[in-house]
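Budget justification note: compute hours in this period were largely spent on complex prediction jobs such as the one shown. Inputs:
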Amino acid sequence: MTVETRLAWTDVRDEIRSRILNRIYAPGDKLPRDEDIAQELGCARTTVHRAMQDLSFAGLVERKRKGGTHVRADPVTRTTFDIPITRREVEQRGCKYGYQMISRDVEQTPISVMARFGIQLAVDMLHVKALHLADNRPYILEDRWIDTRSSPEVLDVDLTRESANEWLVRHKPYSRLDVSFYAVNAEGDIARHLAAPTGTALLVIERTTWIGEAPITTVQATAMPGYQLSAHN
Amino acid sequence: MTVETRLAWTDVRDEIRSRILNRIYAPGDKLPRDEDIAQELGCARTTVHRAMQDLSFAGLVERKRKGGTHVRADPVTRTTFDIPITRREVEQRGCKYGYQMISRDVEQTPISVMARFGIQLAVDMLHVKALHLADNRPYILEDRWIDTRSSPEVLDVDLTRESANEWLVRHKPYSRLDVSFYAVNAEGDIARHLAAPTGTALLVIERTTWIGEAPITTVQATAMPGYQLSAHN
DNA sequence: AAAGTTATTATGTCACTACATAATAATGTC
DNA sequence: GACATTATTATGTAGTGACATAATAACTTT
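Corresponding output:
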């Protein structure tokens, strides 16, 4: 096939990225003007601009009006993770999904939860613990706090049947999200619920969401032993 | 000021996102055609398209030719992590960065490493262990394999002075990257090098890179106790 | 010489046009 | 009626042109 396709902006991006990676444009270097690159590659300036915008979002280059485009001196490894709702994740592994609510109480927020939300005063929130199962075996243990000011309806939801994870995803869009990962040793309730020997290293995925300034929910999802979170780029 | 600014594509994106978040367009719904939205908001179709492209990358909507644009029914939590080179990470925390090479050998790849690269046959690779320090305290322990077929020059690099992490970032661009996170219990060498009591839960960040089909490097970076990786979106 | 003004330059943005492409619907043929 | 062919439709993409904006350089004024 003598395709002779026009250059897509992604092709231009890949070409420029490859030049950066191959040090044709070295870290700190100033790149040619968009227009010159466009001319060289035989495309329009808008196409180069679209490519540059992507590279700029990706953290590979820095752009300034008049100042031009520079290769960032300290390239970062930028990765995108998709964290699906747990039921979906289990089903995609070809396992039978199960769910168990462990506890459900309205309680005053402890300091740790206040810190995650960035609030100063303790308030009453709905505190839900639940277990997600894959093929009837413990998979992920959820320890969740839900702000009843931004989600009063959740008080009427039967959380023994539907997981708060799912209900929130479907009903409570968020505008801001914090995620962090860390490791903990299994002990006490966590060890018991996950059927993990005391001391086992477990991965925790902590997520906190807001709508505008208002907290929605924060959750510590502690995964079964051996759990691994992966991204392919 | 009677500004009467033109709508930027980011404004259009924010407007549409806000409608999705406010369930004016509910999960699963079909959005109006780009052209209709353009007309309604008083902008060109290209502007709406640019906005939609962003929302589509962000995982909020799904687009199909002819099929139109739909709000994703099960929004995934999509997060972007920046993983900087370790020296930079340490320095950004305001700590003094230190580096120590522990070992450096050419060895046959064990099965686990072959699996990470997706190769069938064992080959000789450079196996480097090194410790990154923050304020003279162990911070991250690196266990790295470097394919000398794609990076023969690395054999001549003095890895007692410069970390392989840094050398590779600066000299070996990659086209594919796998990242995963998991938790391990500190034991043996790892516990000793990180000065962590045996059994302590530690976060491991595993990264593997390729250039084209050719493996470059794979690294298990085991972090000090209490280490936390965060992203804000 | 210091300060303020104007010109220049490179990126940022959008409108409009034209055409490509994929999925579907409508139509025609056997 | 089953199958192949042809429109139709909505998104995907690039090009051109025009103007906005920020940073710098060049120039003037005092």
